[in-house]
């Protein structure tokens, strides 16, 4: 039976019924990768020998009567996660030979749940792009159009899922790195609430894998259905055992509603900084129509929505002040000179990025205090609404653009060009305050490319946007296999 695009839930049912073995599923996935991945380049570090051994162990465990959440399911892992015995480079050539000696905590959780790891998926240099290419592993192509990007930085994982290379994958998200590749490749992803899933071992080489609380970044699940997202999130969620004494109580409340018609949803399709392309706007309209026809309350405007321009500025400040913190001293000094040369009336996001890269601690604290005000505004909004539906990026997947001067890159929105990194404002809407956001497919563009939107939910109420994603999948459809 062809199981190329079957869901993890379907594969688990088949395994439990004895219709298939993990060894058969794993051999089938490996054969598919060996045949099809030459054109996609999603799997940058295969681990087939250990995968076959893990599948054999899973079959033996099931024969003994064991059953675990992912027992025998073939999966992939983003290259940036440490896996003992495999390189972790983050696409950086100087770390080509770095091989960690222990698994990241999330990889350990996957294995403890019984998953069979096929290998690692491609990323951009330093995880810092909306595309996935680097000088070690090359370029990952979009399975729908090889001339276009699969997204970044979890682009290899999204392309692998769309191509049928495993049923699940784990990625990470700081600037839409789960949601954008899902949108570009037509799959599902969930950016969890900040702090919900532990980050240890998703560490830039050669840094030690220490516990810590990233300021914006999260790790999260990717899948071909919304229900599979929940299945994988339940494996990933929970505090780091090394910090249990100071961890939050991370028990998640149930979804606010079980019926689509009971949801209260705010649709946001316009941003003051960058326009929304027609294909993405059509996807938002499809979601709005499905909600209305089911009896849900749908609004297009609310005074409770935090100021989008200020949110974008705060996100840019927090993102780029953090990303520049590890720069060499000479580079940092050059940035200080460039920032000092800016005119006082330059309020562009490019100028905001540059100023943020040389923030003082006082500057950062001011931005962080404003973030807390935004979190307060979001809490107020979620007393009136259950979810906010908005773009992930303004367009479907765009053509590969490897210009090393990223500030010179442009994104084409319905024939007009805009600064490349300005498209991050939509991803930042959920990232800056640390809110959960689920990326869902909504159909295709006129050119046949996948189009997705994100469902933003209340903090630590991840099950609400996930349930909304399931219900929308039933109404408007979900993943479609590339032709």
Task: Give a brief description.
The protein is of the alpha+beta class. The chain is about 35% helix and about 15% strand. It has an eleven-stranded mixed sheet with strand order 1-3-2-8-10-9-16-17-13-11-12, sandwiched between helices.
Distance between the termini: 19 Å
Strand content: 15-25%
Biggest beta sheet attributes: 11 strands, mixed
Shape by Cα distribution: globular
* Major β-sheet strand ordering: 1-3-2-8-10-9-16-17-13-11-12
Oligomer class: single chain
Radius of gyration: 21 Å
Question: How would you describe the overall organization of this protein?
Answer:
The chain is an alpha+beta fold and 483 residues long. The protein has a domain at 8-260: Amidase signature (AS) enzymes (Alpha-Beta Complex), CATH 3.90.1300. Helices cover 36% and strands 16% of the residues. An eleven-stranded mixed sheet has the order 1-3-2-8-10-9-16-17-13-11-12, sandwiched between helices. A hairpin with a 5-residue loop joins strand 16 and strand 17. Helix 9 crosses helix 12. The chain is globular. The mean pLDDT is 96.
Key attributes of the depicted protein:
483 residues, alpha+beta, Amidase signature (AS) enzymes, 11-stranded mixed sheet, 17 strands, 36% helix
Task: Produce the secondary structure layout.
Elements: H1 8-16, H2 22-40, E1 43-46, H3 48-63, E2 74-78, H4 105-112, E3 116-121, E4 133-134, E5 138-139, E6 141-142, E7 145-149, H5 155-163, E8 168-173, H6 179-185, E9 188-191, E10 218-223, H7 226-236, E11 264-267, H8 278-293, E12 297-299, H9 308-323, H10 329-340, H11 349-356, H12 361-384, E13 387-390, E14 410-413, E15 416-419, H13 425-431, E16 437-444, E17 450-456, H14 463-476
Parallel strand pairs: 2-3, 2-8, 11-12, 11-13
Antiparallel strand pairs: 1-3, 4-5, 6-7, 8-10, 9-10, 9-16, 13-17, 14-15, 16-17
